Automatic annotation (TrEMBL):
Main subcellular location of this protein, as a coarse class: membrane
Pfam families, sorted: ExbD
Subcellular location: Cell membrane
Protein source organism: Flagellimonas allohymeniacidonis
Keywords from the UniProt entry: Cell membrane, Membrane, Protein transport, Transmembrane, Transmembrane helix, Transport
Any one GO cellular component localisation term in the record: plasma membrane
GO molecular function ontology, one term from the record: transmembrane transporter activity
Transit peptide in keyword set: no
Topological relation to the membrane, as annotated: Single-pass membrane protein; Single-pass type II membrane protein
Membrane-spanning parts: none
Protein family (similarity comment): Belongs to the ExbD/TolR family.
Listed name of the protein: Biopolymer transporter ExbD
InterPro entries named in the record: ExbD
Length: 201
């Protein structure tokens, strides 16, 4: 009786080449998502004026402690009330020079939007999410005031106009038209948000 032949051997010599080609294929065709980061526009670098004196009443202090609690002007405040408090400070108009401000003209608060500064300070142990949420509320206060004035002047929200102006796909003639409008509203409520050095208390 003839001997049975063993199972045929598979030639594995080219398997390494096939695996290498597949690796290259997946490396080339796979898209890797990247973190877009935070959408924050930094103010332009301007040389400081000499002998600048800032009155304490023109500074709106916001502190976040390590427990995530808000201290606004040394008083505990809920996050939901922060935006309204910041808006009241920004458009207080104590010196009467702001004819579009709707504030209370409290002599103990800011003189006008150009002099009003919001100072944000946090503890080293503050949660990042809390810090960003507070910062969003403060930026939102500026945007709400700018939207109000843009609606009054141009019948459009400032945030919409700014996004269209900054979009590189916007036609140049439209961007030229928006440039002066965006600049005018920004100058009405200049964003002066100072981020103070963190503390370790």
């Amino acid at each position: 009786m003839p001997r049975r032949k063993g199972a045929p051997e598979v030639n594995a010599g080219s398997m390494a080449d096939i695996a290498f080609l597949l690796l290259i294929f997946f490396l080339v065709t796979t898209t890797i998502e990247t973190d877009a980061g935070l959408d924050r526009m930094l103010p332009p670098i301007e040389p400081p004026d000499e002998n600048v004196v800032i009155k304490q009443k023109n500074i709106f202090t916001v502190n976040i402690n390590k427990n995530g609690q808000l201290l606004v002007e040394d008083q505990l405040m809920q996050l939901k009330d922060l935006r309204e408090a910041a808006m009241s400070f920004l458009e207080n108009g104590a010196d009467g020079s702001c004819n579009y401000c709707q504030g209370r003209k409290n002599p103990e608060s800011s003189d006008n939007p150009d002099k009003a500064i919001i100072s944000l300070k946090n503890d080293r142990e503050t949660k990042y999410s809390t810090y960003i949420t507070v910062q969003n509320e403060l930026v939102g206060a500026y945007n709400d005031l700018r939207n109000r004035e843009a609606q009054r002047l141009y019948g459009r929200d400032f945030t919409v106009m700014e996004a269209e102006f900054l979009n590189p796909e916007t036609p140049s003639n439209v961007r030229d038209e928006l440039k002066d409008k965006v600049k005018r509203v920004q100058e009405m409520f200049p964003q002066k948000l100072s981020e103070a050095e963190t503390t370790s208390n």
